[in-house]
Structure formats: structure tokens, C-alpha cells
Amino acid sequence: MIPRSIIDDLLARCDIETMISSYVTLKRTGTNQKGLCPFHSERTPSFTVYPQTQSYYCFGCGAGGNAIDFIMRIENLDFRAAVEQLADRSGITLPAWDDKTGAKETGVSRKRVLAMNLEAARFYRSMLFDEQIGSAGRAYFQERGLTGSTVKHFGLGYAPPSGNRTMQHLRSLGFGEEEIRQAYFCGKSERGYYDYFRGRVMFPIIDVSGNVIAFGGRVLDDTKPKYLNTSDTPAFKKSRNLFALNYAKSHCENGFILCEGYMDVIALHAAGFENAIATLGTAITSEQARLLKKYADRVMISYDSDEAGQKAANRAINLLEEAGLEAKVIRIPDAKDPDEFIKKFGAEKFRQVLAGSQSKFDYMLSNTKARYNLEIPEEKIKAIRDACRYIAGVYSRVEREIYITKTAEVFGVGRESILHDVESAIRQNRREAEKKRKGELVRITSGIGDKVNPDYARRPKAARLEEDVLGMMFLKNEYAEKAVRDNLLTAADFFTDLGKRLFAYAEEAVRGEGFSLSMLSEAFTPDEVSRAYRMQAQRAELPDSEEIFLTYVKELKNEVKTAASSVSLEELLAQKRNQNKG
Length: 582
Known about the structure:
The chain is α+β, with helices and mostly antiparallel strands. It has 24 helices and 16 strands. Strands 1-2-3-4-5 form a five-stranded antiparallel sheet. The protein has a five-stranded mixed sheet with strand order 13-12-14-15-16, sandwiched between helices. The protein is globular, with a radius of gyration of 29 Å.
């Protein structure tokens, strides 16, 4: 464990409002700050920062914690790496950590991974320009029409076709076999270690700070998989990063161009469209959408023109709009993708295609018309019904009015008929939403499906009392001190396993250096830490006094005793049934 004094000093010097405001636009509401949550998509702010307790909590998705927890979650770091990054940001020099101070290595660190990535990028580039080894890689890039300056600009390289030369190179620089494996440069078989990337042209993935965080590698033949990407490491999470964002963020005044592949992005940049970016071998995620929102308000989707590309575009539109971005779709005629189109018709033609990008509604309408034969009445009715269902899901009344008029014109039917069907679909949506809301309310209050605290559903009343007691202990140290020093409670007085563990941790801390929520992240999962901060946040909104705390303690102990008696009675009845069967 990292010494408590180090954590306390770090958090004391790092103001949580200042730190979080570099990721989230915050607005003051009373003594707190609110903003749109960076961990899930929402229209109404439910993410709250509490300066008094130097914590945050989102009432929408349940994410919560202190400054370290925030960095862990948003940067995909473990506890130690988050502490190191926060210290770097704050200009704090951390003392060396070793077994004598209580800190232990649990795996390769983010700094070591970044150092390996940088050396690997240099190695792959040197292999590409090696007269003998890199000839196949150079031929591939020449065939794709890339100039030497473009290759160098993106730091492209080549992984040797066999053996473990990458690993040998990294070992020669002082990196160990296991940390090289954990950084996803090699695997291990019965015969020993082998390079993951072999015989592939290499695309370094660089974050907005200029760090090489991962690689994508493409084969030069028909071998599968066509692309191989770095798996998640302490320095990289593919769902939270985008290829070429490090360059595109400086050229996105008119929005981003979202592509499917590395080569599409590189071709667009080479043609002067330096706002192009791509996801990393997967469909766009809500995390990537929120990342783009930090730099621009619009994204133009330029996916392949096949059926798979169209389906991916539909999913991307929804995620981008949920993140507050205007989403448009680029239809590329007579070519499979942007790279092919630019080679055929040139950059100026692509600029014209870009100017004619379709809005979400126009894209939906053209796809709907293409799916049905409008000459057949039944098919036309289905197409209109699809369009009305779509319009019913639009939040803005003004947008709905415009879409209703346009749909009536496109399909040649009366506007009142479209309006009637849209209103009918809206009523149906409301009924379904209300039914879902009631079901969700029952589920939450009863604890059904609670993955963080699965014991909640077994005895909801006891679990709620636990959260009241723990929330007050987390809110004010004097309650934690009183519960432990006066022997008011023990772990056995709690019903759920999570409640027992949280109290036991607090009890040990009180009897030691003193309890602080800041240390929870070393002993509990991020979701469990968030639950603890939810308990604190909920109690902060309610009346607070020692009398109330003692009342909750008494009620909790009585409820847990009752629960224990109920369990015992059930066991006796079960025994009796078994005896009768005998």
C-alpha cells in the first residue's frame, strides 16, 4: 500500500474542482458544482462535484470518488499510476516507493509501457527503412500512394516477419520479459516468447499529449486477422482513444471526419483533410464520442458504403448525438471508402461530397426509402410507419414539426396523417417509458440486480439502514470515531458482505491512522468505491445529528437481529421438512 501520508498530501494540494474542470464544464449550484457526466451520455447534468468533501458523484451512472478515483476512471489507470499522474500534474515529487514504505509492484507501470512503446516505434521505423528487412513494408506504402513525408509524419513502421526481434530489441534496452509481454509486444508458448506483431506494417497510436500508447498492425497478404491491435494495457484502452486525434484536434474548426480505418485517415490527411480520425478496430464508443465533444461540436461520418458500414453509421449517429454532437453522414459515390474515392476523383471532389453530407434525419429517410418498394401500398405504409416512429423519438418539438412536413412531402401524403401517427407513437413511447421507470424504481428500491452489492435484495431494509449508517460515518469522521471507539458497532452488525467489509476497513483505519475515504481505492473495486461515495453524497442532502446517527445504529442492529432470526426459522422449517420426508 502507498503510505497514507502521501495520499493525504497529494489530495490536499490537488483541488478537485480545478482538476475535474479540465475534463468537464462545471457550473456552480449553491456550494457545489454540476456538469454533464464524462462517464455516460446525458442531456441534463447529474454529475456533482463537492468542494467541501473534495469528492464527486454522478446520480445518473453511479460513478463517484475523489480526485484519484476520477483519474483512475477517466484515464483507465490503476491506483498507483493515477497517483503518479496526479502528482505530475500538480508538480509534486513523490518519494521512492518500495517494500520498506509499504508499496508493492503489482504489474508493469504506465511509465514503463510508454517507454517501451516509444522504443518500439523507433525500432519499427528503423526496420521499415532497413534496405533488406523493410522492402515489403515500403512496397505496401508505395502501392497505397503514400509519400515518404506522410510515412514519417505518422511514424509508420514495419515489424520483421519472424522470430522475436522486437522482444530482443526491448530486452537489450533493459526491459524484462514479463513487462514486455504485459505491454502486448510478445506472447509466450511452450517454446518461449514470440513477437505478437510479425510481418505487418505498423501504425503507432498517439494520444493528445504526444505519447505513443499502442499500435495497429496490418498484414501484407490474406492472413487473418487483417489488423492486429494492442490489447488494453496500463497506458491504453481502445474504447477511449482515437487514431490521429493528436493531429486532428488542431484542425477541427468545422468538425471531425470519422473514418473506419487507419489508411482512410492517412489518405485524408495527405489530401489536406487534417480533421480526420478513426476508431481502433471497433465501433465508436460513448467514451470516444464524449472525447470528441471536448474539441468540436460536429462529426461527419465517413464509413464504408456497404451494408455493414451503413449499420455502423446508424449506431455512431446515436452515440454522437447522445454526447451532444451534431452528426452528419457522408455518402461516398462510386467508391468503397474515402481512400479509394480520393485516388479516383481527387481531393476537390471529396470536398464537394463533404459539403453535401446528410443530416441524421435525411440519412434515415433515404435509407428507409431504399429498404421498401414504395410502388407497393403495403411497403409504403411500412416505410411511413418507420419514419413516424423515428420522428416520435425526437426530443425537440420544432425538429418534429419540420420532419413531419418533410416526411409528408417525400411520401406524398397529408401532413395531418403523419402528425396523427407521430402523436400516436409518442403516446406509446410514453407508456413504455413509464412502465420501464416503475420497473426500474422497484428494482432499485428492492436491490434486484444490484451487481455491486448483491446481498441488498435479500434484506432491503437492513441494506438501506447500513447505507445510512455508513454514509454518516463517511460524511463526518466523528461518527466513524464514535462507532468504533465507543464499540457501538462491529462488522457482525451489518447484513451485507459489502457493508461488513466497508465497516471493517473503517474500523481498522480509525484504530490506526484515522479513517479517510481516500484510501478505499486500494482495497475496493471502483464500483464499490463509487457506492461508498454515493452513501456519503445522499447523506449530505439529509438532516444530520448525533441523535439521528444513534437512531440509525439502533435500528440497524435490530433489523440485522431480526434477519438472523428469520434465517434461523427458515433453517428450522427446512430441517423439519427434511425429517418429514425421512
